[in-house]
Write a structure and sequence with these properties.
The complex is a heterodimer of chains A (505) and B (265).
Chain A: E1 15-24, E2 32-39, E3 44-49, H1 55-63, E4 72-80, E5 92-95, H2 108-118, H3 123-136, H4 152-164, E6 170-174, H5 182-199, E7 202-206, H6 210-213, E8 219-223, E9 229-233, H7 235-240, H8 242-250, E10 273-282, E11 292-300, E12 303-308, H9 315-322, E13 330-335, H10 337-340, H11 352-356, E14 359-362, H12 375-386, H13 391-404, H14 420-432, E15 438-442, H15 450-465, E16 469-473, H16 477-483, E17 485-491, E18 494-501
Parallel strand pairs in A: 3-7, 3-8, 5-6, 6-7, 12-16, 12-17, 14-15, 15-16
Antiparallel strand pairs in A: 1-2, 1-4, 8-9, 10-11, 10-13, 17-18
Helix pairs in contact in A: 2-3, 2-4, 3-4, 4-5, 12-13, 12-14
Chain B: H1 14-17, H2 20-36, H3 40-52, H4 54-57, H5 61-85, E1 92-96, E2 99-102, H6 103-128, H7 132-141, H8 147-177, H9 185-216, H10 234-257
Antiparallel strand pairs in B: 1-2
Helix pairs in contact in B: 2-6, 2-10, 3-6, 3-10, 5-6, 7-8, 8-9
């Protein structure tokens, strides 16, 4: 292997936590407290717990990136390979959830080399490692391939290769597949399994969806929400134990073999068309060519429609066009009289007040749509400032919706400080407040825990039963099956109808 | 449409293979000479050389215009303002009420306009013909600038490209909420400020996550090696020589024409 000036000794590393805890500066309660466990070199651990139990904090601590005393207060002891994590840099490799914000450089080869450079690995050795790491994760692209041109799954495999080039003895994965389509999830999971088999590295992975990692890990540690460890042992044992299982289900963890219980209203036959697309070409902007051509689709009142298909196929662009936010580049998008009610026939020509009363588009990232500094202002914004409804109606509507989406307790909170599930509920609620006939949702279930998922499905099914048209861009087959209705698949620059789904009763 | 600042469409001209440090040095020499004198002769010589060299440098004129038109507009505005406001000596060329152009004020305006373009072009050429990663490598390895700073700036540049896309998405997301319902200018300005604030929030979040990801990969821990070696070649000699020649020719021409006008005198 030639000359090697790394500071670290290669090989799998052990992790030891003794009553470890961390309180972020400025917070009253600790994010983690009383965590004690010992992980042997080469063990593969799935870390579970309710949201807010401090899983990410623990992972960041093991990676040595939690910061110093100024950023929080540490309790107990946590060591990686017998060292303080900040002294064991390069021994642990961390992969985060969002593929976009962990890319540093423009070219694939340079990206993988970055970590090894920082560890002062000699040049010739760096490029050996780059090629080896890319082969390990099965990313077969030229070294000068632009990182921006990769798919989500490829980007996550690149992030994995980038930490592998540091030859870490401990792999730390923080929900690495939460934002990926099913193919991407599979790609990343398989790459991790292959790498572990070859290097024998220790693994610690955080993930809501237990099934993804169930075959890869040999141990499950469950953090208790109030501090300490709730359960620790082999997956079969921990996940089968009734009390633990009940707590995990309650915490919203996707436990294998447990489907969230849904109380859905009876399905009814759909009503008449609201919006009709004929020969529609859709494009992200006027300068770029259409991503989809010749789309024919009808949105019916009282019907759920799922738009499925691989990442980057143009699903979101189609939803933005149907939602009246992007102008179609060709073809016709026509609102029927039941929807336009005297406004223009083409949704993109509607004024904001007309749009929000007819179509509500819920974006993938809820924060993009937050406009004010409290949940209450957020809910009142549409009905009061845009639709200009009478004050009594605004009050009544906001109260009803807050109640229905369990936001009443949070009315004075700042939207940006809410949890992921709460943000999602709020973004749907703000759209419902102006009473649109059509609701468009882009990946509503990405990264959601089982509880939020069940709530969303129930709410959307109720809206459909009330005669709304609910359109979802989604990869989530469980979601599509639970909601029922119609489905179209976007692929190869066009749209094909899928058989009408009947909801599982 | 995504704006990718990190991978400019480079042509395979020899100039694009030159080390960014030598391009920087050539651009600096030319810029300094043009800055030293406000006269139209030195500025014209430099500008003419720059335009003539475009094919050799591998600069696509259309791309240059697309990226550089605001500068053209700024130079024209500067020239107009100078012609309007400079001392009114020499024969009067045009007069309408208080608006007076004289021979000298117009000459001054032309000099300012040409000079702005002559100064701006080398920098634009540098950006159009240089891969940012190579520039960062050269700055850190050859000029020994602190690598934390150089690589931090490089990573930030990639985020800027992402933020252009994010701005569009934010615009659509806010329109879906009904922002922009009012046509009054104040309401429009308010909506713009709100969207800008939203972008700042997202930018800070992304930057924080990126910083964590970089730190987790050992960034900033001290000494580092470089996977790509920044090297000099004979092309760099030609680039430097070219820069010095253009600067020298410009100064000589201006002195010979008697227009050299040292700025500090």
């Amino acid at each position: 292997m030639g000359l090697q000036i790394t500071t670290a000794v290669p090989g799998p590393v052990p992790v030891l936590a003794e009553g470890w805890g961390w309180r972020h500066a400025g917070r009253k309660d600790p994010a983690v407290s009383g965590a004690s466990f010992s992980i042997a070199p080469g063990e593969r651990v799935l870390l579970l717990g309710a949201s807010g139990a401090g899983k990410s904090t623990l992972l960041h601590a093991m990676a040595g990136v939690l910061g110093d005393d100024g950023e929080g207060e540490e309790a107990g002891r946590l060591t990686v390979a017998g060292l303080r994590p900040s002294d064991a840099r390069g021994r642990a490799g961390l992969v985060l959830q969002d593929p976009e914000s962990q890319l540093v450089l423009a070219r694939v080869g340079d990206e993988v080399a970055f970590g090894a450079e920082n560890l002062s690995v000699p040049r010739a050795e760096i490029w050996n490692r780059v090629r080896e790491s890319l082969a390990d994760v099965g990313l077969d692209v030229p070294l000068d391939h632009p990182t921006a041109a990769l798919s989500g799954g490829q980007k996550q495999r690149l992030a994995l290769a980038s930490v592998l080039a540091m030859r870490p003895g401990l792999l730390l994965l923080d929900e690495p597949t939460a934002n990926l389509d099913p193919e991407g999830v599979q790609e990343v999971r398989d790459a991790v399994a292959r790498v572990l088999d070859r290097t024998g590295a220790t693994l610690m992975v955080v993930e809501h969806r237990v099934a993804v990692w169930a075959d890869v890990v040999d141990r499950v540690i469950v953090l208790a929400a109030g501090g300490g460890v709730l359960a620790d042992g082999p997956p079969a044992k921990v996940l089968a134990e009734r009390a633990t299982r009940a707590r995990l289900v309650e915490a919203g963890v996707w436990v294998p073999g447990h489907t969230p219980r849904l109380k859905l209203p009876a399905a009814r036959a759909p009503g008449g068309p609201l919006l009709q697309a004929m020969g529609l070409d859709v494009a992200r902007s006027r300068k770029t060519g259409p991503v989809l051509r010749g789309v024919d689709v009808d949105l019916l009142s009282g019907q759920a429609l799922s738009i499925t298909g691989p990442n980057g196929a143009g699903k979101s662009t189609l939803a933005l066009t149907l939602g009246g936010l992007l102008a179609p580049s060709r073809g016709e998008l026509t609102a029927t009289p039941a929807l336009h009610r005297g406004a223009a026939q083409s949704p993109v020509k509607w004024k904001s007040a007309q749009l929000v009363a007819r179509i509500g588009s819920v974006f993938q990232e809820p924060e993009h749509q937050f406009l004010t500094s409290t949940v209450l202002d957020e809910l009142e914004f549409g009905p009061r400032r845009v639709a200009k409804l009478p004050e009594a109606v605004v009050r009544q509507r906001v109260d009803t919706i807050a109640e229905r989406l369990r936001l009443t307790r949070l009315l004075q909170a700042n939207p940006f400080t809410l949890s992921g599930g709460e943000k999602r509920r709020l973004s749907v609620a703000t759209m419902l407040a102006t009473g649109p006939d059509i609701l468009m949702l882009d990946e509503p279930t990405f990264g959601q825990d089982a509880n939020t998922w069940a709530e969303l499905v129930t709410l959307l099914a109720e809206l459909v039963a009330d005669g709304k048209s609910v359109v979802s861009v989604t990869h989530d087959a469980d979601f599509t099956a639970a909601l029922g209705g119609a489905a179209v698949r976007v692929a190869g620059g066009g749209v094909q109808p899928v058989q009408t789904l009947r909801r599982a009763a | 449409m995504s704006v990718d600042l990190m991978t400019p469409r480079l042509t395979a001209s020899p100039f694009s293979r030159a080390n960014p440090v030598s391009k920087l040095a050539a651009a600096a020499v030319i810029t300094v000479v043009v800055m030293l004198s406000v006269d139209w002769v030195s500025a014209s010589v430099v500008l003419a050389a720059e335009l003539l060299l475009m094919p050799v440098l591998g600069v696509n004129p259309w791309l240059l215009f697309k990226r550089g038109w605001p500068l053209l507009a700024a130079a024209a505005t500067g020239a107009w303002a100078t012609a309007l406001l400079a001392e009114k000596t020499g024969a009067v060329l045009f007069q309408l009420g208080p608006v007076v152009f004289t021979e000298d004020s117009v000459a001054g305006g032309i000099a300012i306009g040409l000079r702005s373009l002559a100064v701006a072009l080398p920098g634009i050429f540098l950006l159009l013909t240089t891969d940012p990663t190579d520039l960062a490598d050269a700055l850190a390895q050859k000029l020994k600038l602190p690598h934390r700073f150089v690589l931090g700036a490089l990573a930030a540049m990639r985020l800027v490209g992402l933020l252009v896309e994010e701005w569009r998405t934010l615009g659509l997301a806010r329109r879906a909420r009904g922002v922009g319902a009012e046509n009054r200018p104040i309401a429009k300005a308010g909506a713009f400020v709100g969207q800008a604030f939203g972008l700042i929030v997202q930018a800070i979040r992304r930057a924080t996550r990126l910083a964590v990801a970089m730190e987790a990969r050992g960034f900033g821990a001290g000494r580092r090696t470089w996977a790509r070696e920044s090297t000099y070649s004979t092309v760099d000699v030609w680039v430097l020589l070219g820069g010095v020649l253009i600067a020298g020719a410009a100064a000589a021409a201006a002195v010979a024409a008697g227009t050299w006008n040292f700025i500090f005198v």
